[in-house]
Specification:
132 residues; mainly beta; seven-stranded antiparallel beta sheet
Length: 132
């Protein structure tokens, strides 16, 4: 199964400028746990300029969730984190400074199965209130 990049219709604003990596019927995603230097996933991106045939390296990990194929591929990491700082800042046309990194993606169905994700959503209490 050859990995390939898929992009959404540009009319879907939430997915504009994003690509999905598919390997056969599976979609792979970046999980913060696997990224270099503890980089927040919002600060890394795939390098889509390379040819797909040379871009992805497949590795089978039998120690992860009874065995999964992990994809390693080139990417870029922002030197200044987008997740820190002010909510708004003055616009600049300068491209953000990045450095090359090796990213790792896992099948989407393996997401959040090895450790707690970096962001949690609050949950409702299992205890029910007594009717009044």
């Amino acid at each position: 199964m050859t990995p390939q990049e898929i992009e959404a219709n540009p009319r879907f604003v939430e997915d504009h400028g994003r690509v999905a990596v598919e390997r056969g019927p599976l979609v792979h995603g970046l999980e913060q746990l696997d990224q270099p230097d503890g980089a927040p996933i919002f600060d890394v991106s795939l390098d889509v300029r390379q040819q797909v045939s040379s871009k992805f390296h497949e590795e089978f990990h039998n120690d992860m969730l009874a065995g999964i194929v992990v994809l390693k591929h080139p990417g870029a990491m922002s030197e200044k984190s987008a997740s820190h700082g002010a909510l708004y800042r003055r616009y600049t046309a300068d491209a953000p400074k990045t450095r090359q990194v090796k990213l790792k993606s896992v099948p989407y169905d393996a997401w959040a199965n090895r450790a707690a994700p970096p962001i949690k959503v609050g949950r409702r209490s299992a205890r029910r209130r007594k009717p009044e």
